[in-house]
Model the fold of this input.
Amino acid sequence: MSTLVDSVKSLSDLVYYSRRPLPGSPDGLTASEAAPAVLRKPTEHGKLFDIIDDIQAQIKRGSPIDLDDGTVEAIIDALKHSQTTGIDDRYLLLEKVFTFTSRLPPNSIIQKKVTDALISLLYNDLPHPPGTYLGKKYQFRTADGSYNNINIPDLGKAKMPYTRTVQSRNPIPYSSLPDPDLLFDALLKRDGTDEKNRNINNTSSYLDLSPLYGDSDAIQKTVRQFDGRGLLWEDCFADQRMLMMPPSTPALLIMFCRNHNFIARRLLQINERRTYTDPPPQNDPAALMTQDDDIFNRARLINCAHFANVILSDYIGAILGLTKEGNPWSLNPLDIVRETDHSLLERGQGNSVSVEFNLLYRWHATISESDESWTEDLFRKMFPDKPIHSLTVADFRARVAELRLGPSAAATTVNPTPAAQEISNSAQGTEGGDPSGAVDPSPQVTTNATSRQVSNGWGNGKVNGTVNGKVNGVTHSKDDSRSSTSTAADTDDGLSFAVPNLDPRQLQRSKTNASTSTAGATSGPRTWTFGGLDRDPVTGKYDDNKLAAIIQNATETIAQGFRARGTPEVLRVVEMMAIEQAREWGVCTMNEFRQFIGLKAYGDFEEWNPDPEIANAARALYGHIDNLELYVGMQAEQTKVPGPGAGLCPGYTISRAILGDAVALTRGDRFLTTDLTPYNLTAWGYQDCAHDARNGAFGSGMAKILLRNLPGNYTYNSVYGLFPFYTPKAMVGVLQNLRIRELYDFVRPKPEQEVLTVNSYAGVNQVLFDYQSFKVTYERTMKRLTNGYGFFLAFDEPAKHLRDLKIMREALFPEGSMAEYGVFYRETTARLIETKSFSLVGKGVRSVDIVRDVFNLVPVHWISKQVDLLVPQAGIPLKTKETPQGIHTEQEVYQFMALCFTYIFLNVQPETGWILEENSEKVAKLLQGYVKGHIDSIRSKKISISKLKDSFLHWFTGEKDKSHEFLKRLAATNRSSEELSYNVFGIIVASCANFSMAATLILNFYLADERKAEREEIIKLVKSEKAESKSLLLGYILEALRLDPQAPGIFRQASVDVEVKESNGLAPVRVQKGDTIFVSLKNANNDPTAFPNPQKIDPTRPLDRYKIFGAGMHSCLGQFFTQAMMPEVMRSVFSLKNIRRAPGESGKLYRFRADLFGTTTNYCYVDKKGCASPWPSSMIVQYDI
Done:
């Protein structure tokens, strides 16, 4: 049945794609194809396809609503009481609405409307901005109108600048905009808590990652490098209280430090507005600081948006149980929402942490057993002479004062000094910070929204809301999930060493202060360590394997559940101080709080908690339910039962309040709403931090952070990286129930191994020719796209490799074919230049995007159907002006090929691995289906479904049978249609994007001003048919690719222990079985032992010296083909009169340098959407007519 349905869908798409008009835009893309991914433009399909797909998707999601007795009772209760006594949340109406919403068709109008209503409901649970603050300062009106709005004091104030009403959301990078004079010619010219006052929260109330960046200018300066690149010191954070938490908490925060530095480096590399200089202007301090501030602040905006994604996707997803359903839906409170009266629901109006929410987030009951043990060890070191259970508040405060001030000072301090008081304040749930760089030895907590999602055992300590414990397999406590012994990194004491005054060893600084990271630093963030880790003496970074081990141990550890009587004994004194503080603040009662947020007040203790022991104990203590204190009431309330809409299962009141708080926290932040724009974040940054529902992790934001910043410690499909807040054991069952278990890797990732590099000509030759000792690394990806078969280029078995190679070579290159192919490539290049060029007004000049519209499309036309040309092709029905009924446009086919090539050969970043694989599998199935269908039709002598389908395609698209000569030769062999289609697929993928890129690099190389002499010589050579001229032209082509290669290197994996003997004075490389080797083709092609005077352009070098396309058994089949076809392409290009770059950025390749395992290369490009890509996307050239 499914096969029949899929066939109907496929046929619907074929008809739709055939009948749709050609794109009218100059880039050849439809609106949905050209749109950035973050705009979520749907892929176009036939109507029947959409109908069937919608039905299938709804069946998969399940029925939005089950009208059982519970649902009916919940609706009736809401109708009766929502405007009077309040909704009875025991009926789980809100959870049912969340389930209903998540199961609606994605991005449908009804889902948007219901989501908007949910956001409005939750956001309006609390006042925004707050109505008042404590203190006289805000009691009276000011003369100039300031502070009328407390959170925006200058709003409405006299003499303020104009405001902006509309913010663009289309991330068009500056580099993609046409040069102004080009535009004119073409179109316009005629055609905390305060240490003295515990009522003050010293930190911000926003998701600004202040534990990483600091909450004041003075503290922030201790973590910034100020070197013009906007970087933080490696593996640093500003809040020393993180050192008082189990190691996985600071380890998780360090991931955001690394992410900031990744972002900052990428911003400098892309340099979207061309305002940065690299290297930074060291001789101009003012310019250096300006650049550093700009990069730093933009990187922080992007990093904080990443963190907000963690909150909205991972954290709320856990609360609602969405991950267990495999549901990527996200409650997005950031968008513009219009009320029923068409008014806008406010956003970006500010936020303030209240005392009630300070108390709400002390989730001590959820602390894992291992973290409980870790905390007990810490207390034993702090109080060696007194049992933990007998500690009093006075004991704790006295000891904290002693650690802070020294024994003699503490002995004379009856009333603690402000500094000592700050520590005790922090232990009670208030805020404080110390910019001095000395480690604060107290168990402080953070109350700001940036660090408030869950408690780790110290009142309210959190890493900006990041979560990492698990209850019943669901993460819901922060970092409370890791044992000290298993994460101490080869030390028997992974915890107390974070407290410097407890032991002289405990301030663990780097082994040297002469390094880049620690030079001149004797205290402060650059010297802090935790969990028994040591910093690298040169880089200042921690070892990736040890950091990963800490986080992965935490992922494996289950947190305890929310419940009454669940707080560990070791936190007794902390709980006592919390209760005292709540009373000092005059906090409301449990029922008052519930009624304020719209919930029904409890009528008795049994309704609050049905457990007789708990209810009776509370009654004995409070007498009446209305006397129940908020803090105690929330912590001991009956908890939810896991189910739809309820993944994280705290008490009912906490559950509702944290959702409202999460919405208020994010929606009230200007930098996550109105100012979250491509202009502020850059086009790349805006897309980098966008929610990605197709990342294999159901939209997890933390997955990207881990896979990006510990790439050697997670595979692209590891449940450890994709679902770090769920135990791997729990995810086995979840993914099994979703019937996708086979897509994931459940084995704990192995520690990263160093990638060895081979850089000399002799060493590269040894590795590439010794196919038995050094195996290819792309066999897995090729097999993934070919149902386990592979492709001859990936075969390490000589017999199998040569068998398939022989078949493909004979079918592809029959006698006399190369001359025909050469004519085709030359004429197609010339034709595309002619048809894709545009004129400038009154100048006799034409322009063309030589990359997008010519080089990228020439091989597309070769591998696709060409009417009336007997050329080899895969039988892909191309949609052009000549064949308007074709299925796929030129640009679509190019994107297909570039995507699959990237997945097979360039798939080295786990953060992009999932989406590459998912998309490539779809494309591979499509293309192989075309090829197999044609071959089956050719072979079939009877009427069959495949023959009818192929005939239908011929008739509908205008194909002609004589174009199947290549496939006819393959059909004549004794190989199966499936195996032949796999080999054809491999051939066309390898021959398209790679060829286009080579052509781009050659032209770009010789258009450089410093290569004018060589360019003039090439222009002469293309006009000559002499054998010597052809040889020299090929020499110039190979020299360009030698000095600016499209493939800087390739990977191999050792199957035995072996020593690689390097040339050019390099030491031999000792390789062990299993090692990964990066074979640097670029460095080998610049080895003076093989290429004397390597920087000189010499077109007479021996052809057999070049290692541009690899070497040995796995040398690219297209090597000799490219050497034959590329001169023909260049003939058409360099025959253009006065060919030159277009003015401004339009005429340049938008790319940046990167270091790839010691090989410096122009490896990364920036596409038209502002995203980094391995492929060049545009370069406009001009020529005279």
Notes: The mean pLDDT is 79.
